[in-house]
Amino acid sequence: MMKFFKSALPVLLVSCGLFVQAQEKHSWKTASSAGYEYRYVSNDPLKARFYTLKNGLTVVLSQNNKEPNIVFRMAVRAGSNTDPASSTGLAHYLEHLLFKGTDRFGTLDYGKEKPLLDKITSLYETYRQTADETRRQAIYKEIDAVSGAASRYAIANEYDKLMKTIGSSSTNAYTSSEKTVYIEDLPSNAVDKFIAVQAERFRSPVFRMFHTELEAVYEEKNRGLDDDRSKMYETMMAALFPTHNYGRQTTIGTIEHLKNPSLVEIKAYYEKYYVPNNMAIIMAGDFDYDDLIRKIDEAFRYMEAKTFTPYAPVPEAAILRSTSIDISGPGAEALHVGYRGGAQNTYESMLLNLTSRILANGKAGLIDVNIAQQQKMMGAGASYYQKKDYSMFVLTGAPKEGQTLQQVKDLLLSQIDLLKRGDFDEGLIAATVANMKLSELQDFESNDTRADNLVEAFVMNKGQEWEKMLSGTDLMSKVTKQEIVAFANRFFADNYVAVFKHKGAHEDMTKISKPEITAVQTNANEVSPFAKRIADAPVKPISAKFLDYKRDLSFSKAGAAEIISVKNTENGLFRMTYHFNMGAHHNKLLPYAAEYLAFLGTDKYSSEEINRLFYNMACSYSVMVSKEKTSISIGGLQENFDQAVALLENLLSNCKVDEQALANLKGRNLKSRDNAKLKKDLIMAGLMDYAQYGADNPFNYVITNDEIRKLKAEDLVGLLHGLNQYEHIITYYGPNSAALFSKEIAGLHHLPRKFRDTPVVKKFTYSPLAAPKVYFANYDMVQTEIAWIRNIEAYNPEKAATITTFNNYFGDGMGSLVSQTIRESKALAYSTYAMVWTPDSREKQAYTIAYVGCQADKMNDAMTSMNELISDLPVSESGFALSKASVINRLETSRITNDGIIRAYFADKKLGYASDSRKAQYEAMQSLTLDDIRNFHKQKLSGKPYNYCVLGAEKNVNQDTLKKYGEVKQLTLEQIFGY
Fold first, then answer.
1. Which fold, 773-977?
2. For 444-468, what is the HEC assignment?
3. Which contacts (CB < 8 Å, 24+ apart) does range 696-701 have?
4. Residue spans in the chain of domains classed CATH 3.30.830.10
5. What is the predicted pLDDT for the residue at 43?
6. Sorting pLDDT into bands at 50, 70 and 90, what band is 11?
7. pLDDT over 90, % of the chain
8. Does the predicted model carry a pTM greater than 0.85?
9. What value does the mean pLDDT take over residues 138-156?
């Protein structure tokens, strides 16, 4: 038995008072209102109503009138599971195409467009059935020509523009194995417009601009080929599910099927699965139930139910022996150990969920205590993933220096053995359930989380088991230790799949070759009659509401420290933070001291015991060190505030030197640095900092490897003991009044009479740029990533409204000029954007940043296209008006609440605002003109030299091509990372 679980340790389990309602029985009830019958579950914190319309369409509504906004999900119970075996990736294709419009919008003249679209459909069928490559190229050339002709009648991204008109800022969608989900948010005053667009969208979609969108999917596939984690997951799924489509078919499909798409099959798939008895509209937010269900019913009444055969998998055979699979990739070594579990909402699924948290909960699980806390490997965890038909229980690990993947696997499986032997305290079960209930309270503050939970309920069984999902933690609370032990011995056997991901070259660097695509027209300035009617429809205005920091915040003092607080009137949770204006650029050792703290104990408790105490109180703390700031945060149940803060204060003041913990920490950091050099996103971040500042930059301002080896425990502990001596502000969001909190914290938080002077911060100098330069880093990857970066000027509040609108118009979002040109018209990338990035402080400069991720053979075209946009701004009065209206709408309908008010206050203060900066932006927006945007582009972007940051495989990137754009400097990883 581990010291962590000695019986003398006090157990401070949370009281049940907060969860009384949640612990009452959940059961289905039926009610009716305004002529509509609905079902609901008693004691549902979401107050969700489940309607089934006459045509079988499911509608789930969860009212939350806190803000004048609504989140929307259209969920379809169809994903990669239901893809035809001969056309994998089809559901994902369809997801992309459902943003292209119908015969009423997205088109200038559908009568003239349709024959061309029919011709494209026919050509793709011929192309698919043709094997001769020369003939295929000729057919594709014809597809390209006809697509160009059809594009003369298409209005690219008109759906996205409609959503901008309405005020949505979260237009998106995703496809997985069992579902396709379309995502929006909207201001609540635009619900009539919104429903009209969504009803039209699914009435009769037209799959226009197909071959350019297909290229975007190709690029998405290439991004997956560069992601080692995706390869690990797909490998594990294929082995766990050799019969089920979870393992046989990936969401994005095979390269072979991507090369041979069928619009005929896509249309047939839509007709089969996009039927009301297989779909659900889910909305959460500011609405009236009766009014909204009536509007939805009237708008979607045209849909007709159809019979269809859902995916019916053949049951998987039991896994009788374990399998090990080796794969390679350029990223760091890693391990997955996966077990196959049962169907959703079964007793086994509940036990697996609970078991995963007993093993790893971030604080007190067996893996947390025995592996993470003792730093026995780089990373370790246990996760549970539930799908409709089966689930996956996955152990994950990454080796430290000198450790093999086999040793990582043995360590992880040893924790399963502890579970089987019952070597854990039964109190861990109660603490786990309490923390899960706490998480539920926090999650349901968000409308997005509400909607996403209801999506899962619909996908699992059309919402019929929502009461089981709500009752899950109550059921867990009745589970005994003996039951967990018996279950572990029954479930965990020699029946797993182990995926060993080694560092090495890509095993399969196959990519989809660049086709010859002629840029299509986007008709960006055109508007269909349908879209105009939607845009012109009146709405009841929502008045903008801005913060008044003197009114919305409470200011007080505790000794030398300022206190800023906001009262939580919704529940019994608190969040408190100590904010120090001192970070890694003030003292390079601060990040290591913060990390070290997690492994230290005091004279009273070991580090493991401290973690268990926090977990039992349903409270948690964190220490975050950024470049210029350190934050010590703690949150949880207010009823345990005194005990939790006292424990944190005791840890900060009395943590003890632990030489073994420091030795482990040094080893892990050195290994982590090696691993960082294998991550392409970090390499690109370092390239960009190098381009902005030169060799001495914020990214590589770190201590050397030799300095890590020489770290002294007493120096790090001394930093922690003395941290409260430096100036800091205390913030609190919780149920207590400002006066009561000030009194409580004064008795708990140790403060000096006078703060010490804050160390001088390291300053960095922006590199002047007289001529364009190219910074290149070599990385083994399928794609090539290019970033443009140029410093503009110090933050200017008078430009804030202009910059926000410029970004919306120019390069931020699917409807922007950059996306329409590079993705929609020229099919050069899946991911692209361009914007002016505003700093977080008046002392820093704003800068232009643009990005394209594309195939290496598209690099030159992509760079040329982005440069053309940066040089010459396409002008569109309608596009500007739309962007301006979108920004104004967002400012009018956004609400900053809870401790978000505190964050807004700090952000504004750092930028030099004494009041809500949004108000100044809103006022400036009213008189903003297209000339302001044009002049800003001309003065700050056009005709200027840029730094190009290029990341790609050296063998694929033509260095002579790069030289066309400026002097090329190839950086080593040591130059980028500083070690």
1. Cytochrome Bc1 Complex; Chain A, domain 1 (3.30.830)
2. CCCHHHHHHHHHHHHHHHCCCCHHH
3. 696/764, 696/765, 697/764, 698/585, 698/627, 698/764, 699/976, 699/977, 699/978, 700/975, 700/976, 700/977, 700/978, 700/979, 701/584, 701/585, 701/588, 701/762, 701/764, 701/978
4. 52-312+518-536, 549-678+688-748, 773-977
5. 93
6. very low
7. 88
8. yes
9. 95
